[in-house]
Amino acid sequence: MKRGRPGGGLALALLLALPLAAAPATAELPAPSSERPALSAETLEFLPGQGRAARSFPLFRFPGADEAYLDLWDATQILGANRFFDPITRKVSLAVAGHRVKLTDGSVWLFVDSRPRRLGEPCRIAAGRFYLPLSFWPVLLEELPDLPLRRDEEVLRLVGGLRSVNVLSVEWVFSGERLRGVFQLAESLEPRLERVGESVLRLHFPGGRLAPFDWQRLPARAPIDSLRLEEAEAGAALTLYCRRPLGSLRSASDPVALTWALTAELPAAPGLIEPEFAGSLPERRAALPAPARRLKRVVLDPAHGGTDTGAVSGGQIEKDWTLRLAEALAPELEREGFEVIWTRRDDRERGPQSRVQAANVAGADLYLSLHLTRRGLAGESGLEIILEAPEEPPGEAGALRPWAAVQAAHGESSLELAAGLEQSLGLLTDWPQLGIRRERTAILEGLDMPALLLEVANLDSATERAAWEDAPTRNERLRALARSLAARSRRWREGG
Predict the structure, then answer these.
(1) What structural domains and CATH numbers belong to the chain?
(2) At 14, phi and psi to the nearest 5?
(3) Which among 439, 422, 431, 334 has a CA at the least distance from the CA of 386?
(4) What's the CA gap between 386 and 370, in Å, rounded?
């Protein structure tokens, strides 16, 4: 199989270019095979349209055949066709969008409304299943231009050399080409794989770029806990931190699980890996050099959501306050040139690990988690900034250390940002400052970037709530916060 374009394998346009003949010939039908064909290293990706999940279909290989094959049942799923099979003549008739398509086991000919067209390989029956060669698709789309599949040349494409990461409902961009719905690391992308540790793998993409995405829908059974995206002039790199040793993970074709393998070797049949869900980040990871200090991409984390209400005082609910404050802060950050990424935009529940993963995958430069607290009616009002208390000092570059301690590498930058905020807000606004403290918290654990937990206000205080409900006061405070971060960003760019 020829290598396709980066990111998409062989697109449908290439399939349409396969050479086709125009006149039938008779041939003696071979006996059906009793052996199931081998699972191919390619999959067929079907993108049915906006708002509908992508689907991947396994392909198969017959000995001596130059093309991969698709199960007839899967083809009817893509086409929305009705099928009729005559076991005596071994013929299949498909009703497709008002047209009749006929195929025969062992024959390279198909008939579309009685018009003969030649395929690149014969249709085959094996182990009681009917298989179509991939050249079936360009013939069909050429003969039936009114099919919905014709409206988008990327709706159906071959993804080659499955190595293997399949993630449903995310978007990646590789060298400018978008992969919608399903992301697959394939031979056509030619990533260079490097084993960083027993459970850590890094993939290098020379000359490419990887767009950030939100991994919110990653199922808990997936074997990968966290990712790190790095971009440089030489290309992009993706580091994956796994729950299990690399050697124990195999590829599979289940479209809702993230699965993988280190080599192109495939199991005898598709299978689903269901690793134990430990509910925690990987134990060890490779220590990296001190990160470069920059501020461009900021994650806004409105705490709580859904059934997780957070603090409740009378009719005041923390989850509602944090979302409203984040919605007010976001435009101030964007006005200062920051790119804002959200952990939630509505009233949904999302655990801290899912939020941490989304921030790490996005390659963010700063994590701001917004909270309110209860200090009682007579309690202090104002902003308290909380930093992660390091579990252990940062290790030397290349050493293995607990993933939970990754935040320690950013401790100095986090403290510098917190101190700058406290000073600026105290001077420029009437927002009381209650200081900076450190504590162990799952909210910040595992974040591979500077991170601040902002206890914005005392939910019990009617006076403080009134101050935040006053638009001029609220805007003044949040604008000062955004400007303080922008000033620190400029200092870091200038080497200060």
Answers:
(1) 12-27+37-158 (3.30.457.10), 162-279 (no CATH), 297-493 (3.40.630.40)
(2) -70, -35
(3) 439
(4) 11
Q: Assign residue 130 a region (left: φ > 0; alpha: ψ between -120 and 50; beta: otherwise).
A: beta
**Phi-psi domain of 49 (left: phi exceeds 0; alpha: psi -120 through 50; beta: other):** left
Determine the pLDDT at residue 35: 65
pLDDT block averages, 10 residues each, the chain of length 496: 34 42 43 66 61 67 86 84 84 89 92 90 88 85 70 46 28 29 36 69 62 38 56 68 57 29 26 26 43 82 93 92 96 94 87 78 88 86 90 50 71 92 92 92 87 95 94 95 93 80
Distance CA 79, CA 83 (A): 11
Question: Who's near 86: CB < 8 A, 6+ residues apart?
Answer: 92, 93
Alpha-carbon gap, residue 93 to 157, rounded angstroms: 24
Alpha carbons 78 and 70: distance in angstroms, whole number: 11
Concatenate the DSSP letters of all residues of 397-446 into one string.
TT-EEEGGGGGGGGHHHHHHHHHHHHHHHHHHSS--EEEEEEE--TTTTT
* pTM check: above 0.70: no
3-state secondary structure of 264: coil
List alpha helices for 243-351, DSSP H.
318-335
Helix, strand or coil for residue 340? strand
Segment (H or E) for 103: strand 99-104
Write down the pLDDT at residue 255. Answer: 28
The runs of H, that is alpha helices, within 86-164 are 136-143
8 Å CB contact between 377 and 459: no
Measure the CA–CA gap between 34 and 218, rounded to whole angstroms.
Answer: 39
Residue (of 341, 344, 394) closest to 364 by Cα position: 341
The sheet with strand 224-232 has its strands ordered as: 192-197, 200-206, 235-242, 224-232
Q: Do the beta carbons of residue 400 and residue 285 sit within 8 Å?
A: yes
Residue corresponding to tokens 């050249």:
135
Say if residues 236 and 230 touch (Cβ distance below 8 Å): yes
Distance CA 266, CA 332 (A): 50
Contact residues for 227 (Cβ-Cβ < 8 A; gap 6+): 215, 238, 239, 240, 241, 357, 360, 361
Burial call 3-24: b when 16+ CB within 10 Å, e when fewer: ebebbbbbbbebbeebeeeeee
- Please tell me the chain's helix, strand, coil percentages from 3-state DSSP, rounded to the nearest 5: 25, 30, 45
DSSP 379: S
